[in-house]
Design a protein that fits this description.
About 35% of the residues lie in helices and about 15% in strands. It is α/β, with parallel strands linked by helices. Helix 1 crosses helix 2 and helix 8 runs parallel beside helix 9. It comes from Hymenobacter properus.
């Protein structure tokens, strides 16, 4: 199995145009309209240095209010909240992962995109924000199992589902009892998923996570100690297990590959985001060792941020055909 090669680089498109064609967040934020969806956002909207309405993206309260507005306007989510200090992710990039996963399913199904609650997706590390299940359910009608090692996060995800009739029955929150495991002890005997997805912890240590957060704030043009009082270093928040783990992103994904290889027929596609390009060679070697029959690397971008996800399957052609006929057709 040869590692896939990324496509040749092209001239960068404007930030929003780089998003997936079905991503509803390609247009610039309409802050007056979003403030109508969530009046709490209005207090954070002001002209930036270019004279355009914006928010201070280094302010976690502003980011949270923006997310609440986006989820209400685009996904019909009336009630969304997260515990203090938990990850509050940027929604446009999260939506891209879901839409490109949908494309992957369609390509595996003769061009027809499988929709509806019979399509089951495992979100590894669903988090308190529950973003991926919200988008996947509202855009494609999929059913989700959301796993996490944090009981507080799972309860928050359950509260989001319970507070929004549009999500009724869409998400099963499941605790991973062993922090060092991913699929072991979580996937039940005979259980199958059409896809798994994961946004793994990025950093290898708390110190590395803190340094990365400082760089992020600096990139936003705001110092944690300037402006309207002292700013939190983590504008998007995050508990330690959301931000770092032993071995960092590379170690986490290698464990995921190893565990997936022990249950080759539990999912049609296993997938994971890979933030660092230098992580890819090790992932490809692990997949070759595990016996993956096909590997895909899907590139994504939002502004200057480049990302991708790797998808792999252990199914042979006859098994894939049987899967399609049984579940997607």
């Amino acid at each position: 199995m040869k590692p896939p090669h990324p496509a040749a680089p092209t001239t960068p498109a404007p930030e929003k145009e780089q998003l997936h064609p079905r991503n509803p967040h390609r247009a610039p934020y309409d802050f007056p309209q979003l403030s109508q969806a969530n009046p709490a956002l209005k207090a954070f909207v002001q002209p930036n240095k270019f004279g355009n309405l914006s928010i201070d993206f280094a302010n976690p309260a502003a980011v949270k209010a923006l997310n609440q507005a986006l989820l209400k306007q685009f996904y019909g989510i009336e009630h969304w909240d997260i515990p203090r200090g938990y990850l509050c992710p940027p929604i446009p990039g999260r939506a891209d992962y879901v839409h490109y996963l949908a494309d992957l399913l369609a390509e595996s199904n003769g061009g027809t995109l499988p929709r509806g609650e019979d399509i089951t997706v495992l979100d590894v590390g669903v988090g308190a924000n529950c973003i991926y299940p919200i988008i996947g359910r509202r855009e494609y009608g999929w059913h989700f199992v959301g796993s996490d090692v944090d009981g507080v996060a799972l309860r928050a995800a359950q509260q989001i589902e319970a507070a929004n009739p549009a999500l009724a029955g869409a998400i099963e929150a499941r605790l991973q009892p062993t922090r060092s495991r991913i699929f072991d002890g979580l996937i039940q005997a005979g259980e199958v998923f059409d896809m798994t997805m994961c946004n793994p912890p990025f950093h290898a240590s708390a110190a590395e996570a803190a340094a990365g957060s400082q760089r992020k704030v600096a990139g936003l043009g705001t110092s944690p100690g300037t402006g309207h009082g002292r700013r939190p270093a983590l504008n998007f928040g995050g508990q330690h297990h959301e931000l770092w783990c032993a071995g960092g992103e590379a170690g986490f994904i290698r464990r995921m590959v190893q565990e997936s290889g022990r249950r080759p027929t539990s999912a049609y596609w296993y997938t994971s985001l890979v933030s660092k390009k230098e992580t890819l060679p090790g992932v490809y070697r692990a997949l070759q060792t595990a016996g993956a029959t096909e590997v895909r690397t899907v590139e994504m971008a939002q502004g200057q941020k480049k990302s991708r996800f790797v998808a792999w399957t252990f199914l042979k052609p006859a098994q894939r055909d049987a899967w399609r006929k049984a579940r997607w057709q």
